[in-house]
Specification:
Number of strands: 2
Largest sheet: 2 strands, antiparallel
Number of helices: 4
Helix content: 40-55%
Radius of gyration: 18 Å
Shape: elongated
Strand order of the largest sheet: 1-2
Order of helices and strands: HHEHEH
Oligomer: single chain
Distance between the termini: 21 Å
Length: 132
């Protein structure tokens, strides 16, 4: 009987990837907190995992010189603009405290997804090897 990793792991591997991509977006927001007219962005985690956006965060390149680990411009539809809680004189919409809080929350969710996925692998390993 063959093991289907997609069925065994469920959505957790995709969740881990979306959390990593979201961390990149949030880190970019924090890095540009002092950039005039920069607009903070974010990913809708639930919508992406539910397939509601149409783009499933698969990085593609059209040129060999493109970086493979940077979010592709085609994902702009998945990125939403943040609504600032307090307008900035220079047009920047990044609230550093909010971004840091979101980044921390995302990091905790990433760790939880990682631990859950790790538990799935341990269970599969035990099933393949038999009893400890």
């Amino acid at each position: 009987m063959a093991i289907s990793f997609d069925k065994a792991l469920g959505i957790h591997q995709q969740a881990l990837q979306v959390r990593a991509d979201r961390a990149e977006v949030l880190a970019n927001n924090i890095a540009n907190a002092d950039t005039p007219n920069f607009h903070g962005r974010d990913l809708d985690f639930k919508a992406i995992l539910n397939g509601e956006t149409g783009n499933q965060l698969k990085v593609t390149t059209t040129n060999a010189a493109h970086a493979a680990d940077v979010i592709h411009p085609d994902f702009a539809a998945d990125l939403m603009y943040r609504v600032p809680t307090q307008p900035s004189v220079d047009g920047n919409t990044v609230d550093v405290q909010e971004e840091m809080a979101q980044f921390g929350q995302n990091a905790l969710a990433y760790q939880a997804s990682f631990e859950f996925l790790n538990g799935k692998f341990k269970g599969l390993k035990l099933a393949i090897k038999g009893s400890a």
